[in-house]
Design goal:
The protein is about 60% helix and about 5% strand. The protein is mainly alpha-helical and about 140 residues long. Strands 1-2 form a two-stranded antiparallel ribbon.
Length: about 140
């Protein structure tokens, strides 16, 4: 029995499989590079969000709009904080708000939230009956 044709067919299949494997390795390398770039971009965006959120507390609040109604400070957390108060009947502490908003219960998050709640007291949206205990103004 002559094995040469069979071995030649096997060689052709091995070459094709090797070529495919090489092409896939090149594609994987390119995808890993793109993934690294995307992860770096996400990291930069997270840093930017943290920086902006930290600076937003320093921006003066606009307390009254031209129609005479109360206006929230320009920060995405304020409407979220008020939404928690709208869903709750009793007074809340900054820690309660952090839990409801899925913030990590780190001191920096609790203190930022407390500062935002105090700002809402200043502009007349919340009241602070006892130190650290806030409720929505009736």
């Amino acid at each position: 029995m002559n094995l040469n044709p069979l071995l030649q067919a096997l060689d052709l299949q091995e070459d094709a499989a090797r070529t495919l494997a090489d092409d896939l390795r090149i594609q994987i390398g390119a995808l890993q590079s793109r993934l690294g770039e995307a992860e770096l971009r996400l990291e930069h965006l997270a840093i930017t969000r943290t920086t902006i959120t930290g600076l937003a507390d320093r921006i003066p609040a606009r307390t009254v709009d031209p129609a005479g109604g109360l206006e929230l400070p320009e920060h995405p957390d304020y409407p979220r904080i008020l939404a928690v108060f709208n869903d709750t009947d009793g007074p809340l502490r900054a820690r309660d708000i952090c839990q409801a908003l899925d913030f990590e219960l780190l001191p920096k998050h609790v203190e930022r939230t407390r500062a935002k709640m105090k700002r809402l007291v200043t502009i007349g949206i919340l009241t602070e009956a006892e130190p650290g205990t806030f409720s929505k103004k009736q």
